[in-house]
Every structure is written in structure tokens, then in C-alpha cells.
Amino acid sequence: MTLPGATTAVELDAVSKSFGATKAVSDVSFSVASGTVHALLGENGAGKSTTMKLLSGLIMPDKGTLRIDGAQVRLASPRDAHRAGIQTAFQELTLVRDLSVLDNMLLPRSPRSLFGTLKRGRVAAEVQQHFESLGLDIDLAAEVGHLDLAMRQKIEIARALYRRPRILLLDEPTSALAGNDVEWLGRIVADSKAAGITVLFISHRMPEVRDFCDTMTILRNGRHISTGRVADYSDGEVVELIIGRSLDQTFPARTATTSLKPTAPVLETRALTAGKKLRDVDIDLRPGEILGIAGLQGMGQLDLFSACFGALATRSGDIRVDGKIVHLSSPADALHPSLRIGLLPEDRKTEGLFLKLDGTTNASLPTIGAFTRGGLIDGEAERQAAEAVFSVIDVSPVASYTEAEAFSGGNQQKIAIAKWLVAESRILLLFDPTRGIDVGTKHQIYELMRAFADAGGAVLFHSTEIPELVHLSDRVVVLYEGRVAARLDLEEIDELAIMNAALGSVSASEASRWSA
Q: What is the CATH number of the domain that holds 174?
């Protein structure tokens, strides 16, 4: 729809795109008014990212028409899209990890002098000024691969804005952001709108859609379902339109086993210090429990999860499993049959999966030795183990022989979880498991977590979404500046208590009292 009196910046008219037998988008039509912020919603695989790629010039439609500012366009390459005033910040970051921040900002074309040499000094000053205007403090000489995921995402957004777009495409920009970073993006979007820039915004988080967006389009199974003003839809209506059914209950009910009996911890840390942030942290994770770890970005939670998986060396303190001190020098130690610890990492695509390998191979890799006979892999046993888990967690059977990169983000995340179920892990370390996942798949992961805990497994769980911590956790530990700021039992858990502690509002004496 186009708002009354507004011109149209982007229009799709009966657009279709197929990849083999798969129809990614089918006869999709909608328009976006100039100078507005428009959300594109749908489950993983609904056609949102395909639509963004069509507008970015990465792929071309099989049929249908694209119009920019009322004129029909043929976007055969990203350069065509740039000429049409379109810039994109992708969720799957396009930054080159081995190059500096400045070099990435200048790709793919750098301004040159009359004699072909790069005007590096002048351009560096311009980029620095651009960052400052966005409220970013970034070392231009820093190698991108050494920066955390949230900072890389902000650089991706900053680069798109540096190219002065008339139309800005944001593909799940908040999936790597939390807390103050989301507020930062909100200001960027508001400023872009005030400057007359049209913004298309993919998100799975309804609070952000309501805060940032004027209008929205919902896609399902590659087809257009609805377009309208955000204010005209309730959250429940949006969920039903996205998944084609209602979710009676977003979060699974806690069962009787969730009211934990005083059992011995399966995983403990004692005065654990690791990485750049984590300092003197004590946690106790019990069988049958989901223990939430809360904290704003960079408060030590990633160091905690990495250390408990053997991916980060401890500087002092102990990690204990079943009451015994363990020395985790690598993830291979965490995978030992006596420990069976599995980690779902922050970035599934670079840390959790081999995208060029099929689902079976990804799911069996941590425990490939269990499928090896006389130095040879028993492919049939490997496939059967993977398919058994895929059926439990609702991954398509074709995942067994299809490369992981061919699947939507939600299915990729479930494949990344599947390998720890194939490994029969008894401790799951889940770091923001629903990042960039649609509402239907989120519900499936919630149920999987609860079922795993109810069966006697133990889950250490971090989320950037506070409601998830409130409704899924049996207890919550809040980190602030790398230390424990609060410990909340089930009856004490609410969003206010978590945020107060996450912002450093709880005194050290209170934290000590709770840890007693």
C-alpha cells in the first residue's frame, strides 16, 4: 500500500523467482511509499531475503516488474542497484574479515586522484567523520575479523549509509544487536527517514517493527499475504498471518520437574576468570534446568560460554563437571563421553556449520568416531542417526543430502542444534539460539529446550531478548562488567529485575547476599 498523498519509492508487480523446483517468491506484489520505513515479515524461507536480493541486484526475477520511483528498472547487478540509489546492509555480513575497517568501507570502489593513486588520507578523514556522525567509535585500522559480531553489523550498516542511498535495505540488522545497539539502530532509522530515505526493514522482533516502521508486508511460502499500516495489526494477528495458524502459547509451560529439587550441579564454575571480560564468576547448572545468563552486549557472557566449551583458555578459577575439576584445553575435551558438552555458538554460519557440507555431515562431525569402523565411515549408520534427530526437531528430510547453505536461517539453526543431539550431549550451552529466527521456529526451539531439560538435560542459555529469559529460565544469573550482578530464582525473575541488574543498578552487597 502507499500512504495517502505519498509517492511510491519501491514497487514489485507480480514478481516471481524460482531456484530449481523451489519457488522462492511467487507472483508477489506490493509497494513502499517514499520516505517511509517498511517492514518485511515472514518465517525463514518465506521469501524475504530473496526479495531483498532482487532489489539489491544480486538475482533477477524470472517474471514480473520492479519499479523504483515509478520507473521500471532492470537490476542485473549490484552496480545497477547502486545506480538506482539502493544500498543494502545484509545479515550475512559482506565485510572482508582480513581487511581493515577503512578498506572495507571503501569496497568495492575507492576514490582516486588524477594519477590513479588512492586519496587515502582524505578518505580516512571522511570515513572517520561519517562514523562520528553515527555515534560510532571505531579504529579504522582495526582488522574486521577481530571485532565482535555486533560491531561488524554496525559497520555493515554504516557502509551502506556512507554511499548515500535513497533506498536503504536492512536485512535483519538487529539479529546481531541488543540493548543499546538496537536503540542506536532506531536512531539511525529515524534519522534516515527524516532525511527522506526510504527504508525496507526485515525483522523477527515485533517491538522493533512497531518502534521503527510505518507499514509492513507479510510473506508466507513465497507469496504475498498482507500489506498495511503496522498500527492496524495486533501482535496475534501478525503471528497468524506469518505462520498461517495461531500459537496458543508462545512459551512452553513449565512442568512439575521444572520446580527443581536440590540436586547436585552437573556444571559449575568457581571464581572463573577468562577472556577480556569474565572475572570471578560462580555458576551452578543442575540437571533438568534451564539457567539463563543475562547481560548487555559484551558483559562477559560469550567468554563464559566459550570457556565452558574449551574454546577459550581460563586465566584462573575452576570449571567442574559432576563435582570434579575438569581442564578443558579444547572443544575436543568438552566432547569427551564423560562430559558431553555441546555449544550452539553466536554465529551459526561461521562457527556452527560448514555451509558447503550436507546436513548429515554437519550433524555427525563432532562424533564421527562413533560411525567409524576399521578406519572407514559407516555412511548408513551416520545418515540414520542424523535423520532420526532431524525428524524429532522438524528439519526437512532433504537436509540429509543437501548443503546447509541451501536452507533458511531457522533450519540452519536446527541443524546446528541437531549435532549435539546426535552426540547425546547432556549439557547444552545455547548462546542466543533464536537470533534471526522466525516466530514459528522460535516456538519449536523453545519446546526443544524445555523437552531437553525435562528429560534430565541441563541448559545454559543466553538470549538478547529479555522475555525469552523471563519465560524459559528456571533461574537467571545477570552479568555486569564481567561479574555476577544478580542471581534470580524462579519467583524473582521479571524483565525489570533483569534490566536493573544488567544496567549495573544492583549494589555489590546485594549481589553478594544473593550469591550466599
A: 3.40.50.300
Its domain, for residue 306, covers: 247-340+426-516
3-state DSSP call for residue 198? strand
Given 243, 278, 307, which residue is the final one in a domain? 243
Residue 348 lies in a domain: no
Among residues 7, 177, 149, the alpha carbon closest in space to that of 189 is found at 177
25 and 61 share one domain: yes
In sequence order, what are the beta bridge partners of 355? none
- Whose cell is 577459550? That residue is 312
Coil, strand or helix at 88: strand
Look at residues 120, 155, 122 and name the one whose alpha carbon lies nearest to residue 136: 155
Q: Where are the alpha helices (DSSP H) in 46-113?
A: 48-56, 78-83, 101-106
CA 260/CA 513 separation, integer angstroms: 21
| 47, 88: one domain | yes
The per-residue pLDDT for range 146-174, each reduced to its tens digit, is 898 889 999 999 999 999 999 999 988 88
- Does residue 55 have a pLDDT over 90? yes
- Give the relative orientation of helices 379-392 and 409-422 as an angle to the nearest 10 degrees: 120
What is the rounded CA–CA span in Å between residue 473 and residue 121?
51
Q: What is the mean pLDDT of residues 92-96?
A: 80
Q: Is 499 inside a domain boundary?
A: yes
- b/e code 190-203 from CB counts within 10 Å (16+ = b): eebbeeebbbbbbb
Cβ burial 113-135 (10 Å sphere, 16+ → b, else e) = eeeeeeeeeebeeebbeebeebe
CA distance 208 to 398: 34
For residue 281, which of 292, 294, 268, 290 has the smallest C-alpha distance? 268
1 part of a folded domain: no
Identify the residue whose cell numbers are 532433504. 398
Among 99-103, 110-114, 178-182, the least confident range: 110-114
Last residue of a domain, one of 220, 243, 266: 243
Quote the number of domains for the chain. Answer: 3
What is the C-alpha to C-alpha distance for residues 55 and 52, in angstroms, rounded to an integer? 5
Contact status, residue 185 vs residue 173, Cβ threshold 8 Å = yes
Strand partners, 273: 316
Sheet with 37-41, strands from edge to edge, namely 86-89, 167-171, 198-202, 37-41, 215-220, 223-229
Which residues share a beta bridge with 67?
11, 72
Which alpha helices (DSSP H) does 170-218 contain, by range? 180-194, 206-212
Mean pLDDT of 443-469: 92
Q: Contact 291/269 with Cβ under 8 angstroms?
A: no
- Judge if 66 and 154 occupy the same domain: yes
| Residue position matching grid coordinates 536493573 | 500
